[in-house]
Amino acid sequence: MKLLLGKKIYRILFFFLFVITFSCKKQIKKENIKIAETSRVEYLPYYKDETFTPNWLKPGSKEEKKFHKIPDFNLINQLGDSISEKTFENKIFITDFFFATCKGICPKMTSNMFKIQEEFKNDSEILLLSHSVMPSVDNVEVLKNYAENNGVIDKKWHLVTGDKKQIYNLGRDYYFVENDLGEEKSIDDFLHTENFLLIDKKKHIRGIYNGLNRASIAQLITDIKSLQKEL
Questions:
Q1: Domain that holds residue 22
Q2: Which of 103, 132, 183, 207 is the most buried (most CB within 10 A)?
Q3: Using CA atoms, how far apart are residues 188 and 64, in angstroms rounded to an integer?
Q4: CB 146 within 8 A of CB 78
Q5: How far apart are the C-alpha atoms of 71 and 115, rounded to whole Å?
């Protein structure tokens, strides 16, 4: 009788220990999720070259005002409209480089850019900019068809074509989208990269992300929201 009673008490104690342990793990998991949804730092870093070394500047400071910026440009989007730096005045934008006939990384990149578009679909402060690296082929008509086939919202997400030299100079010398450090490239060397870049309202680079990686895209969305809270 005493043996049976002892076993019963042991089972009850084991049950309570299991419930407590499970509850603790569940609470920890919830706390981890909450942390992941918030920015890791007070301000996002700034970037100025192909090494992508973070520079910790305070927004609005003298250092920030003199820091590397995306220069003026003039391109054409899928509607045939002229697109320049003025299109992105007081806007946060995400940019990448692609071409319409790409069967490799571009479809996945476009799919992930679409997710960003949907996340900020009703937020006029956020725009998207995709540069064609084959502008001689990707004319307005081609980009228009590509936009229609991939759910692009005109005026929200600009697919641009134009002068090849200008596009390649922007990609290599100002966005630093290629990772081939120290390797000189010419206009004849094809520009192809999976990187997405986050640009703030003052045309500073504030983040670089792998456009093929789901976790990286999730971090990009988090960082966009953090950037919106800056001064």
A1: 1-37
A2: 132
A3: 34
A4: yes
A5: 27
CATH number of the domain enclosing 138:
3.40.30.10
Pairing of strands 205-210, 195-199: antiparallel
The whole-model pTM stands at 0.82
Q: How many domains does the chain have?
A: 2
CA distances to 55, 80, 145, 146, 185 from 141, in Å:
41, 9, 6, 9, 30
- CA pseudo-torsion sign 188, 194, 195, 201: positive
DSSP string, 60-89: TSHHHHTS------EEE-TTS-EEEGGGGT
pLDDT band for position 190 (50/70/90)?
confident
Cα–Cα distance between 94 and 219 in angstroms, integer? 13
Question: With contact defined as beta carbons under 8 Å apart, do 78 and 147 qualify?
Answer: yes
77 within 8 A of 158, measured Cβ to Cβ? yes
pLDDT of 3-39, one tens digit each? Answer: 444 445 445 444 444 444 444 444 433 333 333 455 5
Q: Phi-psi category of 182—alpha, beta or left, where left has phi over 0 and alpha has psi -120 to 50? A: left
